[in-house]
Amino acid sequence: MVARLTPAWLRQLLLPTTVLLLVVLLDFFLGPGVVITGSFAMAAVVASVYASVRVTAGVGAAAVLCAAASGWWNNNLGSVEWSVRLWLALLLSALAVLIAHIRIRRERDLSRMTVIAEVAQQALLRALPHSVGSIGIAARYVSATEAARVGGDLYEVSETPFGVRVILGDVRGKGLDAVQLAATVLASFRRASFLHESLGAVAADLDAVVTSVAGPEDFATALLAEFHDDETVTFVNCGHPPPLLVPAGEPASDLDTGPPQLPLGLGPPGSAVTVTWPARARLLLFTDGLVETRDLNGVFFPLSDQGAILSAGSLDEALDNLLLRLSGYAAQRLDDDIALVLAERKAESNAA
Question: Could you name the domain of life of the organism this protein comes from (predicted)?
Answer without folding.
Answer: Bacteria
